[in-house]
């Protein structure tokens, strides 16, 4: 009987530890979401609708799929395109410079130079590196994510649950491959 009581107590303790762990993870996730909301100053559905008319100045291009914007917060905000991947243009951390990385970065730099962009979010708005994930639009309405893939400067890379425009990116990549553009060129 005492052995059974100890076993139940240990299981109860384990359950408590799991609950505490989940609670602290949830609190940390909520904290990231609050910071995210503060950075853009919108959280409600009404405010989300006004997001469609908010444009941010691009301040720096990091590589072919990452850049910085001025969001009126100190230091700005780092944006990572949803649904695509571009070759690395430089050695950074564990990532090594890759074939076509320089060309990919030059394409994005030329595209975003002196531009303002509008951001659209999907289910998850942050990646594991705390970068803001977004679909990015130029003022003329063109989606930059699609342009990168369609020109062959990047490839399709969808990660669930952010799959809103997956079919669009599949078509863009098919176009680049069939027309031997960018990474798909025969060299």
Which key features would you list for this structure?
Staphylococal_nuclease_OB-fold; alpha+beta; signal; 187 residues; two-stranded antiparallel sheet; disordered N terminus; OB fold (Dihydrolipoamide Acetyltransferase, E2P); five-stranded mixed β-barrel; 2 domains
Strand order of the largest sheet: 1-2-3-6-5
Strand content: 15-25%
- What is the chain-wise order of helices and strands? HHEEEEHEEHEH
Got a strand count? 7
Distance between the termini: 76 Å
Q: Indicate the mean pLDDT.
A: 77
Number of helices: 5
How would the global form be characterised? globular
CATH topology of the largest domain: OB fold (Dihydrolipoamide Acetyltransferase, E2P)
Concise overview:
By secondary structure, the chain is α+β, with helices and mostly antiparallel strands.
Polypeptide structure, described:
With 187 residues, the chain is α+β, with helices and mostly antiparallel strands. The protein folds into 2 domains: 1-40; 45-184, OB fold (Dihydrolipoamide Acetyltransferase, E2P) (Beta Barrel), CATH 2.40.50.90. Helices cover 41% and strands 18% of the residues. The strands form 2 sheets. It has a 5-stranded mixed β-barrel. A hairpin with a 6-residue loop joins strand 2 and strand 3. 28% of the residues are buried. The model is unreliable at 1-47 (pLDDT under 50).
């Amino acid at each position: 009987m005492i052995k059974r009581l100890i076993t139940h107590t240990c299981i109860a303790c384990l359950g408590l530890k799991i609950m505490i762990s989940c609670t602290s993870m949830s609190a940390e996730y909520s904290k990231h979401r609050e910071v995210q909301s503060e950075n853009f100053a919108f959280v409600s559905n009404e405010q989300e609708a006004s997001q469609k008319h908010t444009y941010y100045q691009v301040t720096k291009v990091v590589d072919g799929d990452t850049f910085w914007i001025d969001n009126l917060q100190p230091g700005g905000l780092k944006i990572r395109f949803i649904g695509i991947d571009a070759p690395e243009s430089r050695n950074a951390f564990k990532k090594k410079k890759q074939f076509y990385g320089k060309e990919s970065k030059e394409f994005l730099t030329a595209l975003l130079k002196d531009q303002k962009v509008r951001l659209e979010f999907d289910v998850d708005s942050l990646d594991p590196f705390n970068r803001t994930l977004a679909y990015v639009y130029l003022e003329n309405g063109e989606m930059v994510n699609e342009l990168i893939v369609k020109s062959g400067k990047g490839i399709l890379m969808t990660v669930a649950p952010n799959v809103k425009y997956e079919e669009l990116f599949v078509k863009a990549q098919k176009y680049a491959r069939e027309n031997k553009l960018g990474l798909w060129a025969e060299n």
